[in-house]
Amino acid sequence: MPNDILILVNNTSIYIHIPFCEKRCHYCDFNTYSGLDYLVKDYINALCQEIDLIGSVCPKDFLIHTIYFGGGTPSILPVEFIEQILNHIRINFRLADQIEISLEANPGTIDLQKFISYRQLGINRLSLGAQSFDERELALLGRIHSKDDIIHAVEWGRKAGFSQINLDLIFGLPGQHLNNWEKNLLSALKLDVEHLSLYGLTIEPGTIFSEWLKAGKINDISDDFQADCYELAGELLAQNQYEHYEISNWGKRNEQGKILSCRHNEQYWRNLPYIGFGAGAHGFVNKLRIANVLHPRAYIQQLKNLRSLEFPYSPATIESRSISKIEEMNETLMLGLRLLIEGVGWSDFYQRFDEDINLVFGEKIQALIDKGLLEWVETDQKRLRLTRKAYLLGNIVFREFV
Ligand code: SF4
């Protein structure tokens, strides 16, 4: 049965970007910086100003049902800064009673007291960047924490009262064997967290890994090995009651049978609105995709210009693109088909666009069905989903809807 599928246009999410890390990991190409500690205070003040500005012009029927602190390393911040940001959100926006507030934490930057404070602030979901339980792999990745730090982070999270904890893990590392990956999975399973996000390593331009690859210090990624890692994960997690609900994400079910998914990310996959605050943050709201200036220094500078703008623009906006109906329909399929159980519902699509999905995309859909990559299933409604065979071939499907 699909997981809590309710589409409300004004059910909106907030993303907060914290672009600071203690040290850049060797594989990381995110918009994050180390050595800029002296900017943190000004950055948080600018962020709160952006929240105030957008909040002051945000339509009052917007109901925020998820907030996500991502980065970067949000847990690197003193708790007072997280509190300051949440206070500004609470003053400016209407929050849902059952709001999900997630925070990404690096196991090398936290302690029990920090987690207790997070809970007191209303944060109710932790996403821990574990990546590996193997000390050699953690060093290769350039992580600042050990295996024991991950174990302590989960223990402290539980002690602080978190009942929703995610671990991120990376597979397909240079020099990794299938048994190393299996050990990582078994270590994660032992911690009995509610949610696991598993990503195949990609070597991105500009990273230390890409330099090492060019210099012949590491081997290139093997697609076959990554596929083996993915298959193994699927088998092991299914045996341990994790539901594979999105291409890279697995969640346990609660007592009511609901998958303990990441509701914030579901907002993206359902192609529903979100407002992004901070350097490099993106938003999708009022049929506009907008993006903020990347560097925290430029962001702070732009926010000095405290003019009120039309919603959802802020002084930090550097890009804005209006999304046509056909683009939005394509994106809804491209993103929604990542949801392996939910897929894209025929009725949901009709309700949202006043269009029959088969009349708009019938030929493409049929061609992918003929290739064995898509299927229609009957659940609460007719749902278009990836077939099992397509889990590893998702990109062939998604590129049809770009
Ligand atoms: S902690 Fe995360 S955001 Fe920071 S450098 Fe490492 S991978 Fe990138």
Fold topology:
Elements: E1 11-18, H1 40-57, E2 63-71, H2 79-92, E3 94-105, H3 112-120, E4 125-131, H4 135-141, H5 147-160, E5 165-171, H6 178-191, E6 195-200, H7 208-214, H8 223-239, E7 243-246, E8 249-251, H9 263-269, E9 274-277, E10 282-285, E11 288-292, H10 296-302, E12 317-322, H11 325-336, E13 344-345, H12 346-353, H13 357-370, E14 374-378, E15 382-386, H14 394-398
Iron/sulfur cluster is lined by residues 21, 24-25, 28, 30, 32, 71-73, 106, 129.
Provide a brief overview of the structure.
The protein has 402 residues and is of the alpha/beta class. It is built from 14 helices and 15 strands. It starts with 10 loop residues before the first strand and ends with a helix.
